[in-house]
Fold this protein.
Amino acid sequence: MKVIQGTRNDLSALRVLVVDDEADIRVGIQKLLGRLGAKAMVAEDGQRALEMLGEQPVDLVLTDLNMPRLGGVELLATIKQRWPETAVMILTGFGTIQSAVTCMQGGAAHFITKPFDNEELLQLTERVGLQLLAGRIAGPDSNGVVAEDPAMRRVVELVERVAQSPLPVLVEGESGTGKEVIARLIHARSPVADRPFQAVNAAALPDSLLESELFGHVRGAFTGADQDREGIFNTARGGTVFLDEVASMSPSFQSKLLRVLQEKVVRPLGSSTDRPVDFRLIAASNQDLSALIAAGEFREDLFYRLGVVRVLLPRLADRPLDVLPLASLFLRRAAKTCLGTDSTAPELTPAAADALRAHSWPGNVRELENAINRAVIVALGGRILPHHLGLEDRSWKDRREARDDELQYAEGKQLAIERFQREFVQRALELTHGNISQAAERCGMTRAALQRILRQHGIDRGDFR
């Protein structure tokens, strides 16, 4: 094995899966990739590889062609169908080069012939790996989408497929799950990405203003309409219109929207003529439209027009593997916004990361972003500790509200005291970098009293050093 000369780029974030039915080749490549810092896993055949891909995200697959149960050709086809963002490199013997070329046509990134040169494999993996990592980092920052968790990866896979068609899409999910972010991703991946993306919140406007906003109006249509105005459906010019909170639309406006979708024409307010429009509609709702249909509050025919393709966004609690990657994304953004473009983002301590993982996130992604923004502002010394996130405040508030009907004065007072103690001593420990004696002096209490409070609240002074 050759000695690698020079300094390699850091690929510690790269996730690689090596697939080969020969154990010595699997282990050899795994050790070789360790020199790049990459996290390399192994599978003995294509079937096992698919099982592993379903359990955790992988950036790059290095696979042999001839294997039992499921070979490399079938593995490549399945990966490109289910995980299109995952790159595949083919390892092939001389006699199967033609098959490798066929794989290249089927979406493989590269192929290497056996016996391969270690340096060649490292250089190729390094080059492909850097491209993949650059894409993974750029993707969330440009589109706001993180999909490390299988639940969210399935959403992105559906988005990639539906983005290429002009079909209407209905994005459903709780408040704060990122419905507009997904709508923007669909637009960005579509053939009309160079055309306008225009967003309207139906709940924010009464019918008359919503109709004017979407359909446009002519001069004199109503008081204050001193000139003609094109509506968003017209100014889309073949682009995408995102209509959020469609459940809030009145029955009369639902009828007008249905006509637009059926006939692709709009009639501006005050006009007697129709105008053709060209747009792709993405609608969103945080309510169960099927339940509203059953209650007679939403038109069934409009529902089927809006939801030709339905994308259901999971709650943040149902995509736990995305919590820390999202936190890292928001941390970078908040550092630039709040601390300056050249600033260094604060470090997310292990204790803070544990707190993020343990939280239930009733406010979904929006709540996580708010917690990170708060932490960046209040953190001292470049380190984010659990109490900077404000999650304990939320927990206390939830406990209080859940017991409002039965909460007695004494109990409420005790909850308030506990909250005050926790925040007070955490602040003192942060200012003294975990020094118990100095923190006790700042708090005006003895070391023993402070230590009792720390034990009572499960606070580890080591988190503040």
In short: The first strand starts at residue 15 and ends at 19. The radius of gyration is 28 Å. Residues 118-143 form the longest helix (26 residues).
